[in-house]
Amino acid sequence: MKKAMATMKKSGSSVEKDGDSPSRLIDARIEELSDWRGETLARVRTLIRQAEPDVIEEWKWRGVPVWEHAGIICTGETYKSVVKLTFAKGASLEDPSGLFNSSLDGNTRRAIDFHEGDEINEQALKALVRAAAALNMSTRAAARPAGARKKPSSA
């Protein structure tokens, strides 16, 4: 698979020079892996989309799948022995099921490392995705200056 360099549009959405959408690039990465890592990445991608139907898929940092809703929810990196979902604001999320098992010392991010043969707690992962999206939305709303109004959708 040829490597494509990401460029940024003014909207912040990444588009590849050859015109491939981020979703197609993620599809290609899953196919390219063709082992348990591809299967795992495909499964967590499906769960993310189910948990947050308005999620936007991006392709950043020279080949990292990113899922966003009012900011980054998580990234999906693949390594030789692990598929890593890193939640951008994971340290601020409740994790009652104890999914976070990596990057636990930082003040911002938290990650889940999936190894070959690991079971995915689908309900808990969906809950984390929904919580991350909700946190992004609340942070965005809090950042709006006092007295600022949303533009009417029909305008």
TrEMBL record:
<dbReference type="InterPro" id="IPR014922">
    <property type="entry name" value="YdhG-like"/>
</dbReference>
<feature type="region of interest" description="Disordered">
    <location>
        <begin position="1"/>
        <end position="23"/>
    </location>
</feature>
<protein>
    <submittedName>
        <fullName>DUF1801 domain-containing protein</fullName>
    </submittedName>
</protein>
<dbReference type="Pfam" id="PF08818">
    <property type="entry name" value="DUF1801"/>
</dbReference>
<feature type="domain" description="YdhG-like">
    <location>
        <begin position="37"/>
        <end position="132"/>
    </location>
</feature>
